[in-house]
Amino acid sequence: MNTEQIKTFGALKQAGYQSKSIKDELRQNLRQKIAEGVTVFEGVWGFENTVIPELERAILSRHNINLLGLRGQAKTRLARLMVSLLDEWIPFVAGSEINDDPFRPISRFARDLIAEKGDDTPIAWLHRDERFYEKLATPDVTVADLIGDIDPIKAANLKLSYADDRVIHFGMIPRANRCIFVINELPDLQARIQVALFNILQEGDIQIRGFKVRLPLDLQFVFTANPEDYTNRGSIVTPLKDRIGSQILTHYPENIKIARQITEQEARLDSRQSDVIHVPSLAKDLLEQIGFEARNSEYVDAKSGVSARMSITAYENLLSTAERRALKSGMEKTTVRLSDFMGVIPAITGKVELVYEGEQEGAATVAENLIGNAIKTLFPIYFPKIEKLERPKEKTPYQEAIDWFAENEIELMDEDTDEVYRQQLDQAGPLYGIIQKYQHDVSEADRYFLMEFLLWGLYEFKKLGKTRFTEGFQFRDLLGQIYN
Questions:
Q1: How many Å apart are CA 233 and CA 189, to the nearest integer?
Q2: Out of 106-110, 243-247, 372-376, which region has the weakest mean confidence (pLDDT)?
Q3: Within its chain, how far is the Cα of 296 from the centroid?
Q4: What pTM was estimated for this model as a whole?
Q5: Is the pLDDT reported for residue 157 higher than 70?
Q6: Which residues contact 428 (CB under 8 A, 6 or more apart)?
Q7: Which residues fall within 8 angstroms of residue 153, CB to CB, at 6 or more apart?
Q8: 55-82 pLDDT tens trace
């Protein structure tokens, strides 16, 4: 439909435009996309067989929706992506504050204008990108903010009585008529404000300051909530929950592969970082495993959750750590090292909520433990498993390397050039032998990261000692560390 040529109500009728509610609009466009095999919720990973089918069923059922999940589970992103299911343009009565449908006018302004001008009523067009409203629920939100109130200035300017409905100033919800309206963190709304939503959800109308005003609004509501809110900051009142058609549970990524897709998609990287810094695949897996370890840690509050944003910001910090080292050392290119993971600790400590025991340990110590646990979890994937109990004098695949450290040590400084870093690792011949035996097909670029990973793994399994200096790490035999 050529929106530039249709400027009046009469022209709109002649064009054969059919008016429909926003829920029917979403449903019809979703049906078409499903039938054509088009992906609706692009860029959301891990929900293909869980959340997205439930969300599509809710839209097909014309339901208002509550997305319930811990922080960092793409709840708001899902709501924003629903905009793609709207028609590209819809007509409304020009000048209307609440996007009146010319075929179904609900405001006093639109009804009077159509009664006066008929088919000559001016028509404007609203693009789907402008049909998304979002409000973060906070305790200071009022009914006037959401629904509306009497405007004394308007009454004075128009010389109208407060009994005249033209003195009403509409709130955010009426102004979002025929749009998607999202209320984030719904339980943070005071109970009395939640009560004000009852009529809108059930009957589709609003009441303002006792006015006998019936405005059958046409809205698609999407709410988001965190299960933690149900017990700590507030709760969703039962009658309101009863009026929300579908409650959909979101979740964190179920495996490292999906988590990596999310992190690589969302990380905000400078092109120079991407071009200059090589990140081994194992380093990416290790970064994601830290998040999985945090969600299972006894020191981290499971009710609060561990946002996917932790992995994203940690990845950004990891590359920045390597970039800083390259700049200080005058290197044009470099590769991420395992010791660079010390640079992601601020991203971890700022994203996890600790229980009492975790607070006693200290946030930085907990973060280091999470990195260590991630190394221990991934180690058996790349090298033979190290058993906690071993037979006396039993020769293990690591014995030669452990014996080498009885008389030698390796120091890896944070700002060593790549050449010095590789020389330090190359001097430990047994390490290279283990790599050749169990990971012989690894690329040259990743081999040194794998050698350092082997060192850290032997330390985590208490086969080697590790000392942190101000500017680096030293690996030595375990007894040597104890005696020193």
A1: 10
A2: 106-110
A3: 19
A4: 0.86
A5: no
A6: 401, 404, 405, 408, 410, 451
A7: none
A8: 999 999 999 999 999 988 999 999 999 9
